[in-house]
Amino acid sequence: MIYVVFVEPESPGNIGFLARTMKNFGLTNLVLINPCELKNESYFQAMHARDVVSNSVTYDSLENFLIDAKIDSAVGTTGTAGGSYNVARIAVSPEQLADSINYQGNVALIFGREGNGLSNQEIKLCDVIVSIPTHDYYPILNITHAAAIIFYEMFKREKSYPVDGLEAATKAEKESLMIYMEDIIQKLGYPTHKSKNASLVFKRIIERAFISGREAHTLKGTLRRINARIKEKGNEGEK
């Protein structure tokens, strides 16, 4: 189970905004640590996530919540990641967090105060610290912006966007394209080193490309026709 924990929120509106962001990514367990008073603004800004606000639970301290909820992984967030001189603040990126976190246990994603973030003592309670790379000129993100980035990295591994009749090209289909292209390159009479470079470039393009099976089939047909036309021209030249 994933809990989203907001430590000492100062603005009722930000509670609503966070709830709304949570619901965008299927998260419903909001925990408020020593919060400001919930007002109409919280529910207004939450929009269709008012239930997340209504069902939120309140604790007087982060430590008490972590103990009471039997949290297996406490993930703190910070905008000022440390280095080797400050082991407690060595941070991972949201992507690294999403790749390594154990979703089977109880996970707490902990966001600090709007102004000061998490205290050093609160960070020491965390098992992992996550930080979002930002520009040095203005490194601190609004809590809901930071939350959206972290939620997205976690959620994108569960969500796919299937389109009827659209399937990604298989490895075999991409390799088939390479066979046709290499045959064409050989017929062009390039020097050996240029043939190798041309084949390598095409291979890299195809490997990076997010093409569908239908697109691969169409491209394969085009390469086949080009190959046949080159062969025809070659036969005409030999007569």
From TrEMBL:
<dbReference type="GO" id="GO:0008173">
    <property type="term" value="F:RNA methyltransferase activity"/>
</dbReference>
<dbReference type="InterPro" id="IPR004384">
    <property type="entry name" value="RNA_MeTrfase_TrmJ/LasT"/>
</dbReference>
<keyword id="KW-0808">Transferase</keyword>
<dbReference type="InterPro" id="IPR029026">
    <property type="entry name" value="tRNA_m1G_MTases_N"/>
</dbReference>
<dbReference type="InterPro" id="IPR001537">
    <property type="entry name" value="SpoU_MeTrfase"/>
</dbReference>
<keyword id="KW-0489">Methyltransferase</keyword>
<dbReference type="GO" id="GO:0003723">
    <property type="term" value="F:RNA binding"/>
</dbReference>
<dbReference type="Pfam" id="PF00588">
    <property type="entry name" value="SpoU_methylase"/>
</dbReference>
<protein>
    <submittedName>
        <fullName>TrmJ/YjtD family RNA methyltransferase</fullName>
        <ecNumber>2.1.1.-</ecNumber>
    </submittedName>
</protein>
<dbReference type="InterPro" id="IPR029028">
    <property type="entry name" value="Alpha/beta_knot_MTases"/>
</dbReference>
<comment type="similarity">
    <text>Belongs to the class IV-like SAM-binding methyltransferase superfamily. RNA methyltransferase TrmH family.</text>
</comment>
<keyword id="KW-0949">S-adenosyl-L-methionine</keyword>
<dbReference type="GO" id="GO:0002128">
    <property type="term" value="P:tRNA nucleoside ribose methylation"/>
</dbReference>
<feature type="domain" description="tRNA/rRNA methyltransferase SpoU type">
    <location>
        <begin position="2"/>
        <end position="152"/>
    </location>
</feature>
<dbReference type="GO" id="GO:0005829">
    <property type="term" value="C:cytosol"/>
</dbReference>
